[in-house]
Structure formats: C-alpha cells, structure tokens
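Action item from last week, closing it out:
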Amino acid sequence: MDIAGFPDDPVALRSPAMCRFFAGVMRRQMASSFRAVRLLRPGVPQIEAAPLVVFSNHPGWWDPVFFMVLQGLLFENRQGYGPMEAEALRRYAFMRRIGIFGVETGGRSGAVRFLQIGQHLLSDPGRMIWMTAQGRFADPRERPAKLRSGLAHLLARQPRAIALPLALEYPFWTEKRPEALAAFGAPLRGSADLARWQSDLEASLEDTQQRLAKGAMTRDPEAFETVLAGRRGVGGIYGVWSRGRDAVLGRGHGPDHVSE
C-alpha cells in the first residue's frame, strides 16, 4: 500500500527548516558533551545515487543524536528519516517534523506498517533511513552482532536500496570528556534473498564494530577524522589553576591533559 497522502506520511510531515534547526541543536549538544566526534578513516565509502539505509549497533542514549549530527555533516544532500517506538513518539509528537516515524513493537501489524513506511521512503533515491538495528541497548563489545529481522525483510523488498553498516562507541581516552567514535563499513547492495540479507547485515556490522574497536583501543586521533570538535580541558578549579600556572610561567596554555 502506498502511504503517500496519509496523515502519518513521514515525507509530508517532515519540515526541512525544523530538521536544520534540530541538527544545529544536536551538534551543540555533542560538542559540549564530548571531547570530539571522530570518524574512523577512510570515512564514508563511495555510494551511488540509490535509496540508503544506515544501520548501527545501539550502545547508548546518544545514538539518535549522533545520527542527526552525521546526517547534517556527511549526508546533507539526502533527506533523513528514522523509526521510533510509537508510544514514545506520541509523547514527543514534534519529532515527526524531523523525519521520525512511529513503529508499534511486538505485533504483526506494527511490522507490516514498518515495511509499508520503509518501502515508501526508499522509493526515492534522495532519501535515507537511520536505524539502531539491534533494537535494544547493547554493549559495543557484545558478539555476535544480532539484529532484528525487520531490516532484512525491508531490504529484500527493495532491491535498489543500499545498506550501510555503522559502528558507534563512546569511550574515554585521556581527557575528562569521552570521545564519540563512528566507523562506516562496506555498502551492501540489493538481493531478494531474505536469509542472505540477515546474515550479511549481521556479519558486516560485526566486522565494522571490530574495526572501530581496534581503532578505539589505539587512542590515536590520527586514525580518525575529526568531524566535530568538542569541549577541551578539565574545567573547574583545576582548569583555573592550570591556566594561572601557565600564565605565571609565561608559557602558552594547553587545555588538554595529554596533547594530541
């Protein structure tokens, strides 16, 4: 069923102005809460003009915020959308204006509606969907990567769509604030084979998580591209003392605990 024109059509409800506004808000939130937002090199793979689904692990509360930041910084020429538990969306109805659509969990009707909306969104190569495909919070080191089946069902019905794995982590390195780290994997392209999609999605996400874990463990900023700088320094009494000490000694003040 084509949902275009229905009251809950995400395309009709989405407001570009509100998307730009909230993307700015989310960038400021991440910049104030993290040392930096970093993307593991080589960054975003080359993707042809086709409908796109970015699917990730689900390590924490920040994941949808991270999606919005990456959308605005790396995919500004695409319209971004994402699913959210329907009951939560009813409490935050304004989020429909930034491309969020509701999904009823735990029943067949909710699964059918997700497929209807997903196929509608992926009918246009200028659109993309962001999903935490694990469907629950999970430690970033949890293996194997197990995903809910809804994404595989959707992609099996949309052979033109491309799936792009995304791994996320929020580790502490050497500073007061944590790092927000991301890594993209290799794009997966269309197939009508449902079982193949499920196994390929899980394997590709796990491989991407492994790459990011190795990068995170090096604590080497040079392995990453900094896509958004965050707040530096420890702040508080120690920060004031450190600045005063450097001023008395006549040397430049470096806010970081360990210089990059």
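Closing note: Residues 235-242 have pLDDT under 50 and may be disordered.
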